[in-house]
Automatic annotation (TrEMBL):
Homodimer. Participates actively in the response to hyperosmotic and heat shock by preventing the aggregation of stress-denatured proteins, in association with DnaK and GrpE. It is the nucleotide exchange factor for DnaK and may function as a thermosensor. Unfolded proteins bind initially to DnaJ; upon interaction with the DnaJ-bound protein, DnaK hydrolyzes its bound ATP, resulting in the formation of a stable complex. GrpE releases ADP from DnaK; ATP binding to DnaK triggers the release of the substrate protein, thus completing the reaction cycle. SUPFAM superfamilies: Coiled-coil domain of nucleotide exchange factor GrpE (SSF58014), Head domain of nucleotide exchange factor GrpE (SSF51064). InterPro entries: GrpE, GrpE_CC, GrpE_head. GO terms for biological process: protein folding. Residues 14-120 form a coiled coil. It comes from Colwellia chukchiensis. HAMAP family: GrpE. It holds the Pfam family GrpE. One of its GO terms (cellular component) is cytosol. The lineage of its organism: Bacteria, Pseudomonadati, Pseudomonadota, Gammaproteobacteria, Alteromonadales. This is Protein GrpE.
């Protein structure tokens, strides 16, 4: 009887062990399935995160490009506006240049008339007064529009403003000095529109004292 009880207990234990093993196996399978599912979910979420990060990076790049484009466009607009303003200013300043150059011929003729007319002849008094009034009126009009005469008598010769027509040695006068103005020059708003035609002094020839 004792042996049967032992055998029966052994069979029950075996059955219990088998059942426990089966339960453990099923539990392990469920855990593995859940783990696999969790891994898949994590992979899917990570993939979504990667996609979102790529989309964010692309959006940032687009915003940066658009910002750069806007900045360049604004700079170009500012440049165009500045160039336009400069062109308008230049046009305003120098629109009278051609007309002024033509008008200078009349000024030159009036100056020559005043220089050559006989002022001692009383019959010329009215003519002289008329020429002087016309001349002064023209000069005032030229100055009103920022047209100024260049009359460099006794000044150093400046090739940027003067045109040397001849050179002459003059005792007591330093070389490269304007000794005569044949025709005045003129500037318009500081811009040369006609150089002054001048005669310039030159240095005396050196004397050889070696003999």
């Amino acid at each position: 009887m004792a042996n049967e009880s032992t055998e029966n207990k052994s069979a029950e234990e075996v059955a219990a062990e088998e059942l426990a093993a089966e339960i453990i196996e099923q539990a392990e399978e469920q855990v593995e399935e859940q783990l696999d599912a969790a891994v898949e979910n994590i992979s899917a979420e990570q993939e979504k995160i990667n996609e979102l990060e790529l989309a964010l990076a692309a959006a940032k790049s687009t915003v940066a490009d658009q910002k750069d484009t806007v900045i360049r466009a604004k700079a170009e607009v500012d440049n165009v506006r500045r160039r336009s303003a400069q062109d308008v200013e230049k046009a305003r300043k120098f629109a009278l240049e051609k007309f002024a150059v033509e008008l200078l011929t009349t000024v030159d003729n009036l100056e020559r008339a005043l220089e050559n007319i006989n002022k001692d002849d009383e019959s010329n008094t009215a003519i002289i007064e008329g020429i002087e009034l016309t001349y002064q009126g023209l000069i005032a009009s030229l100055e009103k529009f920022a047209i100024k005469a260049i009359d460099p008598k006794d000044q150093p010769f400046n090739p940027e403003l003067h045109q040397a027509m001849s050179m002459q040695e003059v005792e007591g006068v330093a070389a490269n000095t304007v000794i005569a103005v044949m025709q005045k020059g003129y500037e318009l708003n500081g811009r040369l529109i006609r150089p002054a035609m001048v005669m310039v002094s030159k240095a005396a020839p050196s004397v050889d004292t070696s003999a």
